[in-house]
Design goal:
Strand content: 15-25%
CATH topology: Rossmann fold
Oligomer: single chain
Radius of gyration: 51 Å
Structural class: alpha/beta
Strand order of the largest sheet: 1-4-5-3-6-2-7-8-9
Number of strands: 9
Number of helices: 11
Order of helices and strands: HHEHHEHEHHEEHHEHEHEE
Shape: elongated
CATH class: Alpha Beta
Number of domains: 1
């Protein structure tokens, strides 16, 4: 139609009449406009509108895994302070038994033990042997009961405690017949045997500080059927090493059972650097002394104390000499 009208205008040379404004408006109403937006989707009846679901962002190609979050470690319980307790030695009772006390500095017994302790201290200052036996670990024993080993151990400990440069730990290791506490007038329920049997018992819990400033006592503790095995154990070795090396000025004296009476003395002797062997004069047979000495390691220094020996004017004294 447009082409025909154009041809007619060319032939006639006349302009085509303009389209009325009303007709153009009517045509615009009849022809729908094409919109760039997509028509909205019809909602189904009864449907519920839902929020659009957004996809999670993609993780980076080389993302390292996040470090695990560790819970804070629980706070350790405060360590319980362990202290040795204090008791006073009955000096009056000691004097009645013929023992040394700090006030008796010029008695015959004091002079005798001054001679005995010199040899002990001289060797204690030397380094231990290749087998690790500390020379400041000293065992006081005898061949048979009743020869004065406890008397010697206590007096030797008190005499050394009066020195300026040494402290003393006196240990009752005679589990069958402990007597140090009774002689000193002290009391205790636990001791060395409890430390050996139960690792939870700390050594400081059973020590007794005394009114002799440089003397501390370790009781034997209760009786035990396996005391020999406990003395020969690695735990005993560790305790001995710890006691010997904790303080350089410490001298440790063990009151041991008699060598021929129990097997405990032999087990204890394996840890000692020195042995003070008490012999009762005119009473202990030489055969018993030889038999007991043969039970001690030949590398251990042994000092012999002759007790109750009669000298001039009928005085009873103690003598000392060493066996190497």
């Amino acid at each position: 139609m447009t082409t025909t009208m154009t041809d007619d205008r060319k032939r006639t040379g006349k302009k085509a009449p303009a389209t009325p404004l009303i007709e153009r408006a009517a045509r615009a109403i009849q022809t729908p406009e094409v919109s760039d937006r997509a028509p909205p989707r019809a909602r189904a009846s009864g449907a519920t509108a839902q929020a659009p679901v957004r996809a999670a962002p993609a993780a980076p190609a080389h993302q390292e895994p996040a470090a695990p979050v560790r819970a804070p470690a629980p706070r350790a319980a405060p360590r319980r302070e362990r202290k040795s307790r204090y008791e006073e030695i009955d000096f009056a009772s000691l004097q009645k038994q013929g023992m040394l006390t700090p006030s008796l500095t010029r008695s015959q017994t004091m002079e005798e033990f001054r001679v005995i302790k010199r040899g002990v201290l001289q060797h204690a200052l030397q380094p231990g042997d290749t087998r690790g036996k500390p020379n400041n670990m000293i065992m006081v024993t005898s061949a048979r009961p009743g020869e004065g080993k406890t008397f010697t151990a206590i007096n030797l400990a008190i005499s050394i405690a009066l020195e300026r440069d040494f402290t003393v730990l006196l240990i009752d290791a005679d589990f069958s017949r402990p007597s140090i506490l009774k002689v000193l007038g002290l009391e205790a329920k636990k001791g060395l045997i409890d430390v050996l049997e139960n690792p939870e018992v700390d050594l400081s819990e059973v020590l007794i500080r005394t009114n002799i400033d440089k003397l501390t006592v370790l009781p034997a503790g209760g009786a035990h059927d396996l005391s020999t095995e406990l003395l020969a154990s690695l735990r005993m070795r560790d305790i001995v090493q710890d006691i010997a090396r904790r303080y350089r000025d410490r001298i440790v004296i063990f009151d041991s059972p008699p060598m021929l009476a129990t097997s405990e003395a032999c087990a204890l002797a394996t840890h000692m650097g020195q042995v003070v062997f008490v012999v009762e004069a005119d009473k202990t047979p030489k055969s018993a002394v030889r038999e007991a000495l043969d039970m001690i390691d030949t590398g251990t220094r042994v000092g012999l104390v002759l007790n109750h020996c009669q000298v001039c004017f009928s005085h009873t004294q103690s003598g000392y000499y060493s066996k190497r």
